[in-house]
Amino acid sequence: MQLVRLYPTTAALATNLGAFGAATTQDCIDDPAGAPDDEATFVRNLSGTSPAEGRWEHTPMPAAQAVGSVVARWRARHNPAFEDNDQSQARAYVEVAGVRALGTLRVLHAWTDYVDTWTADPRGGPWTSAAVNAARVGWLTENNVSHAEMLTQLYLEVLYLPPPGTFLFLLNSLGPLVAASFPSMRGGGFTRSRQTSCQRADAAPIQRRSRAAYAARRVRAPHSVFPHPHPFTIPRSFNRGRSGANP
User: Less Cβ around it within 10 Å: N or C end of the chain?
Assistant: First the structure.
């Protein structure tokens, strides 16, 4: 199984919900996993008489053979500007084609991370990658306390199994490149030695050839092959009096 995170991209609904610190509601809550910015950017309830609700589209997930679960991770708190009387309540949800699956209702106090998990499509049956990509992730307050609920982070985590043959296709596509770059790997494998933990069986012949090639390169070519563009001679008087110089 592999894990992918899906972040809000476009607001499909924003009712009595205000953005603070950023231009749009999705920009206020798309903080990366493990890096929420809390009061820097957030959304909050703007109504004193009605609940607030937001629902967002998200980044797409890769193709999948199967989807194990969809998890909503969100971070929220009670607005400290108002009395904390256990009336600040909110929950996350996912919605597919108008069918909604609600997360657990939470009472908000200080900044806290919350998690809700769904192992099945809200319409019934197992999740598919198409259903996940069609889903919207939402956040809903459950009271009428003005400005009391604040949300700073919301995203989905999807646990999925890639399509069959994905890894083999990658190996097959790299095969010709590996064979061209390392022709000696076509025949033998690898052997262990005291010098290295992974050494080719034909390392010794290659080493001898490399030493012979290196010795051949050290043979100096005649000076006439590389004439100096400005030939000159150094007068003997230049070196007189210097340590080790010729007289």
Answer: C
